[in-house]
């Protein structure tokens, strides 16, 4: 190799790689020096310690055990029991702009290994590895991973776990020895383990500390781990988790890992999140229209009980509240009066809709709203005409009695006949009806996911991607929401094919606070489906004030879940109030830089958005439970322009707090709050707001307040 290193720069991050053996030497804050010398590189040589091999073993991009590397290998496979310990030698390393392609080969094992690395100006680096079988005979691949090093002081792991109605919960682990590992075998991205990982120096927080963020862009099974070798080196490893025998390469065939997206920050989790958000906005998202319309979904209002006249009445009330997109959910097709049958029979139920969908769609359009509809294309019910005609179209292993989930099974999209049938039914739905949006659901896990007797999670996932791709190409005006029993299919790869995530089936505002915070680490507000739910909440039966429900749903892609015909005028006015507030702030929320603020009390969550030009910011302070202290401390906002003066305005605080009702926790409010109540302007310098701050009034449990900062 001519060059002994290659430097890639993206945003404020540098990545320095030695091509042979292909190894990352430095990944961190952008270096000020223009030229890296041989002496600089020699300073990183590790030497050889006693008690081990007589040579130093690098952690290469392939992470080969055949080199004497004792960690988790990046390549695991064999050719009928042979060629199981490859060692790759780099043949070429070509840098084209901020894209690097490194190609290596093992002539003995007859395998080729390729690494693709892409940087962007936002600071996000993408990695993907590929393996090619060059030799005669089949090569079985057990594992193929992306392996990336982090510094020896990255001692803390942040991962995300969850379940239905409680997705994306934070989990912190100290990583001193051994490994952290999570495996998802649910056949979809899953509620249980999101494909996200953060490594960082101890006690990193929203605003402080060095962190390295990782996301595996894949909607099937996965394995993610973070390891500490006994010599202190640390690395992250991310991969598609293959089932036995799932991947076999014929001569000349190749296999690639999913893309791994990464971001480095030296200013805590906020810096990491902002880089991911900018990358998603500039490289992944594609909207049919730029403004994210406010939704009303009828599911919690009527469920399977569809009456076109009542639905049109719902649409009329929805339009009065300011709703911009009206969605018919589950229950519109034949055999779907409950969740025991009908999936796969994508034909309109003419008993429910004797005049077709057109009268409803026309009414929705006349009211100035877009029309959306629910589908679950990857599923099949045994109680359906489709299953009766084609029982072999079910994804399964013959001879076994596969357990149900939600009384349904998975349709084998790897089967071309099943795939083409679904495509034909969607051509009818989208081609013959003025549909602007589909809510695409996926309500069960994959058990014994077999196609012609062989494991097929990867093939099923890729077939689903193809279906998305074809429909998006044929109907570019139709936007798609990725839903999977709520948030069980949330990842960058499905986001390339959709415009919105249904974050959770749970609209309980208290639980949603932490679910949406978990989402915010990797996704910008405009793709986070956040709905104002009814009272009581359908999933938890808890009651919250309208203000708390409305403010919780504000920082996302807003929607509402209710039957507005049945709701009181007061409740509808409350929905309309927060829909109007969301529309007022929407340009800022969906284009600005999101941030979360550190706070000494875990019962208090603070998050906000600041405009790119720093002219405006809004901050939401949410009090989840009784505060730990009699006073809540200061609100310090470090992302404003230091030398500018800002008008501080209280946009929302519950009336019962303002009026001192209900055993409120304060006798006298801070002066800036009293001035806001009196309509007096409050003007404060940006530096003061960043360093000294504003006193936060003591909030009641399960309440929130919204503060706006406008540069004068």
How would you concisely characterize the structure shown here?
The chain has 15 helices and 39 strands.
Task: Describe the SSE topology.
Elements: E1 6-10, E2 13-18, E3 23-29, H1 38-42, E4 75-78, E5 89-96, E6 99-106, E7 111-119, E8 124-133, E9 139-150, E10 156-163, E11 166-174, E12 178-184, E13 196-200, E14 211-216, E15 222-228, E16 234-240, E17 247-249, E18 254-256, E19 260-265, H2 268-284, E20 295-297, H3 299-302, H4 308-321, E21 325-328, H5 358-366, E22 370-375, E23 379-380, H6 385-389, E24 409-410, H7 416-431, E25 437-440, E26 450-451, E27 454-455, H8 457-474, E28 479-482, H9 492-495, E29 500-502, H10 509-520, E30 528-532, H11 546-552, E31 557-561, H12 569-589, E32 593-596, E33 604-610, E34 616-623, E35 634-635, E36 645-652, H13 655-658, H14 671-677, E37 683-685, H15 686-691, E38 694-695, E39 703-711
Parallel strand pairs: 20-21, 20-31, 21-22, 22-25, 25-28, 28-29, 29-30, 30-31
Antiparallel strand pairs: 1-2, 2-3, 4-9, 5-6, 6-7, 7-8, 8-18, 8-19, 9-16, 9-17, 10-11, 10-13, 12-15, 13-14, 14-19, 15-16, 23-24, 26-27, 32-33, 33-34, 34-39, 35-38, 36-37, 36-39
Helix pairs in contact: 4-5, 7-8, 11-12
